[in-house]
Amino acid sequence: MTRRQQADPAIYEAVDLYRRAITVGSSVFDDSKSVWVPAVFTELDERFVQQPDQGTRSFMQKLEDQLRDASDDAVQLMAELMALHLLVPLNITTGKKRELVQTVLSLGSRDIFVPGVIETAFEHGFVRPGPHYLMRRDLQLWCLINFGAVLTRLRDHDRQHVLGEPDAFKRLVRSVEPTSAYTQRNALLHMFHPDTFEAIVSRDHKALITKTWQDLVLEPTDDVDEQLSQIREALTQRYWPEFDFYDEQIVGTWRGRGKVWSTWTTWAQRIAQAVPDLDEDERQYKLDAAKQMHYLANSNQFDAQTWLRQLQQALGQTDNLVAWRTQQSFMRWAAEQPAHSRNALAELWDENSELTTRIDRFFEQVPPTVLNRAGTGLSLVSVLLMATDPMTYPPYAATAYQKAFDLTDTVFPDGTSEPSRVYTQVLDWLDTFVEEAAARNLELRDRLDAQSLLWRMVKGEPPASWSPARRAEFLRWRGDKLTENDAPVPTLADELHLPTDFVQELEALWADKKQLILHGPPGTGKTYLAQKLAQHIAGQDGTVELVQFHPSYAYEDFVQGHRPNKDGSGFVLRSGPLLDIAETARQNPDATHVLVIDEINRGNIATLFGELYFLLEYRNKRMRLQYADEPFQLPDNLWVIGTMNTADRSVALIDAALRRRFYFVELSPDRAPVDQLLSRWLKARCPQMSWVAELVAEANRQLAPFGRLIGPSYFLREDLDEAWLARIWKHSVLPYLSEVMEPTELAQFELSSLQPGRTATTGTEAEDNPDDDLTEPSDAAGD
Asked: Which residues contact 561 (CB under 8 A, 6 or more apart)?
């Protein structure tokens, strides 16, 4: 057997005292007493496990009440369990460990002394458990009470067998509730059988290690400890006998390295001090969403329509955590396969399984055409996991964590990593953040606190109370682009790579009428620009609602109409997105609210708008809608922006009444400012591919007679390379041009014809890769 790296011998000498007490039913602190017996564990179970205190007082204050009037045996047993719990951590001082145990003993009437071997073991510990172990001591002790209760109820022969056989011991430990005390359970495995189980208490770390060296597991098994054993056997040949997975030369391979935590936590402290409402802004709504999903996850009733409605309601509270397209795709699949989707979620919510297994099984059941596994799909999974414990499983957003990993010099999982490995590595990073923050007097209660502060650090605006110099310093550290005069915050024009005067003109036009339409051919960034403008105008206090018109979209869908009840009992009058956002604007008059109408000309505009033709022009007037009894008025703080694809319908064909109510701004690939957008964007974001701008410009010069031009948005992606250029050209550009060209004419616009010298070597058949179709476009891609 390959011997594992072990802790100081004092740890295992102390555990031997527990092994003896369990075997004979005596006491660890005083072998003349009998406390490791079923009756005493039953008393602790009744007082501590069955009567949890969910209040806000300290753990020791609550424990004192729970043990009030308890027998001396129960108090002594609780102190011994506390000592067993404290043998694990390296990151608690010896003095604090002694204090905690003595405080428990003081609740009884006996004069009990902690044995010297345990006092010595307190000076060591063998790991730095995550914050959950230290902050949820109640769960760890609950686990130990259940562990002892199960063990002491066994017959003498069976108890000795369990203590002596690693596999039997593991089966017993895994059967112990609560399932959330994984750290304590893993610690028990190593302490009682150090030759068999690694000195690793984090199941996330175990998962990361096995994912990293999966190729070394030659005998397939689902047991993570058996996988670790095979991995150690193989790596011993590569490293040295009795190596530690946390050794400096090894840990970076599976965990990444964080070398600049001091700077990160300094900025974290500054933001936490300057943003007193962090809980209200970043935490509470996540807890509210998790509560609703928790109810759904624990419901024993299954009616397909009710299930889908509840799932939609739960996800509806997480719009800023999961992209709406991802939610829409998943809900569409769930509606088509309600039983299958519920089974997939049941796998994800099964707390008896390892986290990586739960995530892997979920993705196995959801078709890859429904969820992109690399980014947005994992965001949805993280939000769904909040149903089990939002403090343990906080939301995931790829770009935010990539930035945080970069700023702490930690290796982010590459694009080939399985989602389960990515998420477990993120959880490990959050645990490190909590530990590093605590070392610098910044208290983060849990991973959700860490995630909330991370989001504010990498995505939020600098606090308004900061001086310009500090704002600029922070933005430089974060890597944000500063303006030439060292302004601390980049402008919207900088972000859009558009001229400042053009963006200012858009804002001026929109502010005048409150209605604006961006029109132009596909690929000119209309939808992206509309959403960015909407977010900019709405700011942090306003709301943005997005709808898309299409031929089957009706007035009843957009404004208001009678719709059948889901139970078939009749019809009910329901508001559409227009009335919903109007009501939101009315209730929040100090903020600007924006309705974005994508593809506005694909619907029957006259039918869809109805009375809005009048109300859009006369914001101070009221009018009775066709399905309502009370007059309605469009709030002045509700702005509307639409996009029109002129490949579908010319602006000239839009009726004059609508054109009079909106300002129209054209975005054309061959006119400013769009004609230079691709060049500016590539130079700033993908300079090695800057030559593509001239390629597209040359194609557009030749395309002018055909009435079709190629917009820049096809190519606005930071991973653009020659292979992706070939894919985009073949599968997006040429099909678009083929609508107005004969095959003989189309040949001159083949990529190899336009750039023979550069593209002759790119003859990849990347389209044969089934994953290519799953790659999500950049935010700027599309119309």
From this structure: 554, 555, 573, 574, 576, 627
Q: Is residue 689 part of a domain?
A: yes
Strands 638-645 and 515-520: parallel
Whether residue 282 is found in the same domain as residue 225: no
Calculate Rg over the CA atoms of the chain.
Answer: 31
Residue 703 contacts residue 749 (beta carbons within 8 Å): yes
Contact 254, 212 (CB under 8 A): yes
Residue 655 vs residues 71, 107, 139, 292: alpha-carbon distances, Å: 86, 84, 67, 46
Strands 560-564 and 623-624: unpaired
How many structural domains are present in the chain?
5
Residue 173 one-letter amino acid = V
User: Strands 571-575 and 560-564: what pairing?
Assistant: antiparallel
667-681 core/surface letters (b: 16 or more CB in 10 A; e: else):
bbbeeebbbebbbbb
Give residue 471's pLDDT band: very low, low, confident or very high (50, 70, 90): confident
Verify cis geometry, omega within 30 degrees of 0, for the bond prior to 178: yes
The DSSP element (H or E) to which 560 belongs, if any, is strand 560-564
pTM of the model: 0.46
User: Do residues 250 and 267 share a domain?
Assistant: no
What is the per-residue pLDDT for 122? Answer: 94
Residue 774 has a pLDDT of: 28
Distance of alpha carbon 681 from alpha carbon 727, whole angstroms: 20
Name the nearest CA neighbour of 333 among 355, 311, 301, 317: 311
Spatial contact of 572 and 565, defined as CB atoms under 8 Å apart: yes
Residue 767 pLDDT: 32
Beta bridge partners of 624: 631
Examine the domain organization and report whether 233 and 305 are in the same domain: no
Residue 520 contacts residue 575 (beta carbons within 8 Å): no
CA atoms within 13 A on the CB side of 374: 14
Q: Answer whether residue 373 is part of any domain.
A: yes
Residue 320: is it exposed, middle or buried by C-beta count within 10 angstroms (0-12/13-18/19+)?
A: exposed
Same domain, 333 and 221: no
Residue 8 has pLDDT above 80, yes or no: yes
Cα dihedral sign, 296-297-298-300:
positive
